[in-house]
Design brief:
The protein is an alpha/beta fold. It is built from 10 helices and 12 strands. Strands 1, 2, 3, 4, 5, 8, 9, 10, 11 and 12 form a 10-stranded mixed β-sheet that branches. Helix 1 crosses helix 2, helix 2 packs parallel to helix 3 and helix 6 crosses helix 7. The longest helix is centred in the middle third of the chain and has 18 residues. The two termini are about 20 Å apart. Bound molecules: ligand PBG. Ligand PBG binds next to helix 5. The site of ligand PBG has 12 residues, from helix 5.
Length: about 300
């Protein structure tokens, strides 16, 4: 009589890649999550593949010295992400690699686009840079690109850039309904991407809005998105539900760093049952209508699912 299922096939596992060799940096606010150098990432993905997880979502964490106002390291074909993609595809050709596309990890000001002299994020000026990043990742072998910057028009710009260069078959997983959320805090520790000034409310969504999510989704669909993402997941189950009803495209939901950190802190204190609460959190996201769930718990959950 069970109405909803959760299988390993539904999971996408986020990974963070840093410069260096033999680097495995723990992240204080996300116990169990590590920044990995390319060599160790290539070992990690063997395990991810053995667990049957179909896809990873890759984030690059460049050295501070490589950051600049335009986020050039984000669209350098020898940058950290293209190198990581090449080595993952060599180690595990069948594991799908989704490359996150955003500038915040690469800009010295930490915003997701370029900033004008007046200190405003300039969405239109950011589009060619985001499109270049997507193209560079596709050239490196990414199976999908996932723009998380939330600049208006970026799906269309990326689609055109990919199509013009022979990558018409690389899909766009669009973070369409991405909220300006306090739950991204731990991610910004891992990705070293907190904005140096201001916040992201000019381009990410107001947590009070749900109808706007449908508008964002329909704009992205018109521009050529192949999959729609809602993020965060747990605090926005109503949004997942409504987006699911409004589109026939696949819907993904991202259980973000703060959701992981909250649960993990409770587990470490013995306040919540780890397996029970983790599985319940993921079932809720699936029940709301997400086809896929991006989660830092993916590897652990895959092990539990295999245990039965
Ligand atoms: C980059 C990006 C963020 C996340 C994914 N891509 C952070 C942000 O927008 O500040 C958050 C993921 C998480 O919290 O797990 N723009």
């Amino acid at each position: 009589m069970r109405e909803t299922s959760l299988s390993v096939d539904d999971l996408v596992y986020p990974l963070f890649v840093v410069e260096g060799e033999g680097v495995r940096n723990p992240v204080a606010s996300m116990p169990g999550v590590f920044q990995l150098s390319v060599d160790l990432l290539a070992e990690e993905v063997l395990e991810v593949q053995a667990l049957g997880i179909p896809a990873v979502l890759l984030f690059g964490v460049p050295d501070d010295k490589d950051k600049d106002a335009e986020g050039r390291a984000g669209y350098d074909s020898d940058g950290i992400v293209p190198r990581a993609i090449r080595s993952i595809k060599e180690a595990t050709p069948d594991l799908l690699v989704w490359a996150d596309v955003c500038l915040c990890e690469y800009t010295d000001h930490g915003h997701c686009g370029v900033v004008t002299e007046a200190g405003e994020v300039d969405g239109d000026a950011s589009l060619p840079l985001l499109a270049r990043a997507a193209l560079v990742y596709a050239e490196a072998g990414a199976d999908a690109v996932a723009p998380s910057d939330m600049m208006d028009g970026r799906v269309g710009a990326i689609r055109a850039a990919l199509d013009d260069s022979g990558f018409g078959d690389v899909p766009i997983v669009s973070y369409a309904a991405k909220y300006a959320s306090a739950f991204y805090g731990p991610f910004r520790d891992v990705a070293n991407s907190a904005p140096a000034f201001g916040d992201r409310r000019g381009y990410q969504m107001d947590p009070a809005n749900a109808r706007e999510a449908l508008r964002e989704a329909s704009l992205d669909i018109d521009e050529g998105a192949d999959m729609i993402m809602v993020k965060p997941a747990g605090p926005y189950l109503d949004v997942i539900y409504q987006v699911r009803a409004a589109t026939t495209l696949p819907v993904a939901a991202y259980q973000v760093s703060g959701e992981y950190a909250m649960l993990t802190a409770a587990f470490q204190n013995g306040w919540l049952d780890e397996r029970g609460a983790t599985m319940e959190s993921l079932f809720a996201i699936r029940r709301a209508g997400a086809d896929l769930v991006l989660s830092y718990f993916a590897a652990k959950v895959a092990r539990w699912l295999h245990e039965g």
